[in-house]
Amino acid sequence: MRLQDLGSDTGHLRETTLEPAQAWRGGFLDVRRDRVGLPDGSSSHREYIVHPGAVMVVALLEDGRLVVERQWRYPIGKAMLEFPAGKIESGEPPLRCAVRELFEETGYRAAEWARAGFTHNAIAYSTEGIEVWFARGLTAGERRLDAGEFVDVAEASLEELESAAQRGELTDAKSLVGLLWLRHWREGRWPLEWAAAPAREGASQSTMADSFTPPEPALRIMRP
Amino acid sequence: MRLQDLGSDTGHLRETTLEPAQAWRGGFLDVRRDRVGLPDGSSSHREYIVHPGAVMVVALLEDGRLVVERQWRYPIGKAMLEFPAGKIESGEPPLRCAVRELFEETGYRAAEWARAGFTHNAIAYSTEGIEVWFARGLTAGERRLDAGEFVDVAEASLEELESAAQRGELTDAKSLVGLLWLRHWREGRWPLEWAAAPAREGASQSTMADSFTPPEPALRIMRP
Q: Helix, strand, coil: what percent of chain A each, to 5?
């Protein structure tokens, strides 16, 4: 069957919630075990993580190189090479999160931003979606790591990162998705729409990003 | 700092296990909450999923098109377009898992296989790693879906899938990593080493894949 012949009707695949249930809740992980109805009328359980979503930033230096990080990822048991990224705080617009994470982790501020795409990184067991943003017109500053956060920052060319990916030294899925976007963008296939950076928090001027800020103070969610 | 100047010493980033703990265990999710030591001597907790690992198969038809699937992903709440993939069963060699999943979900058997790469899809909170395999020399047959499994199968060109990715209709991270590999492989940058398919299970002839099969019967792990 050709892709376009699949059609948009997905009723024969659909699973419905029969009984939602919280299975466990930690400081970071919110684990659910829902009883669900399957397309054939039978039922089963689905176990998954509820995640607030995240953003990743592909930050371009003047010479075309990218800002990358290395940090310890405890579940993997090693320091991983990746693009700057972080979890969205409660009610935070994704672009504001992107601006904040880039600054906090690397010290860079960007003059222009473009939303590239979106990726779901663990569709079998997590609601997580990661927005992929590009940033350019970078100005270096003093970063502000959270307590308990230890991050190396470096600059690398697309070719260096692709080479690391091919050798199996860059395995982080979101960062590999960043390399996919970079390659297609650089070759003119996947254009980006750039816009000026949103006004800084606390500035009086209103921006699109500000207009989505909820009235209640943002909660600081514990970082993984 | 340049990428190569980061060096291989990661002691200043390393987190150590102080007290491992099972937080919750379902039929599928194995949730841990370990107390860990941070590089500055302080301690914190890390919450994560222990996952057996998975394989994804990029299966190439004679005309260069790819075998894709659409299935309901409950955490996302919709049917997702993706390459065939599945969890590794207890003690199962990854290539055997790749052969099994491709056959069970699509009915295809492949004459040749090549291991492309590896990706970690949720490094903040899961041990999961996904092996990326390419398959070619396909023969269609009758698939054998597990009970409670509902999967559409279709064929699509790389260009169709890249277009779906650009439009935000293909967001599954592992499949986007497959598109990265496909593009670089097709343009000659990331070559693959092809080998004949392992002998089928039950056949007398021994293969590399067979030699890693553990003596005890493989446990059937519940699918997410």
A: 20, 35, 45
